């Protein structure tokens, strides 16, 4: 089956690591903002949506870019939202980017605000609304290292893979 997984996430949740592990387990590529923007070289959102639709013609994982909304009418798409406690996210950002607490907190808040604005501007919907996703994973509760395994067990159980 052609499985397309979209992963929306708050900044600092470790969703990229989950996507990488799923990519290895499923042997499918991961596409993110950098990849999609590189393909477009400054084109419009409509062009970005078309690239996402093209990518989704094959099994893959797409991080962000409103992919869950762009692909909402496709039956082979599984939408995930990754969240975590704010303090956990701040600590993760401090470590990854070598920032102090206040710098990491400001970076997190700015990034989350930009993601929410981007999502609303292009979809008219609230970013992170549980009604827009099939599954929500809280890495503070589940652990980043467990989330790909949880997803794999689910996919196996419902015979997606």
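Sequence proposed for the structure above (161 residues):
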């Amino acid at each position: 089956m052609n499985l397309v997984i979209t992963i929306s996430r708050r900044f600092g949740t470790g969703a990229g690591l989950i996507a990488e592990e799923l990519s290895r387990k499923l042997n499918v590529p991961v596409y993110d903002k950098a990849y999609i923007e590189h393909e477009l070289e400054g084109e419009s959102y409509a062009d970005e949506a078309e690239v996402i639709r093209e990518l989704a013609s094959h099994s893959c994982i797409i991080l962000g870019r409103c992919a869950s909304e762009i692909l909402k009418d496709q039956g082979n798409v599984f939408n995930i939202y990754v969240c975590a406690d704010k303090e956990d996210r701040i600590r993760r950002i401090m470590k990854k980017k070598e920032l102090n607490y206040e710098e990491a907190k400001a970076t997190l808040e700015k990034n989350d605000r930009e993601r929410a604005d981007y999502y609303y501007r292009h979809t008219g919907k609230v970013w992170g609304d549980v009604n827009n996703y099939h599954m929500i994973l809280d890495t503070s509760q589940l652990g980043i290292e467990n989330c790909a395994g949880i997803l794999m067990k689910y996919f196996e159980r419902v015979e997606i893979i």
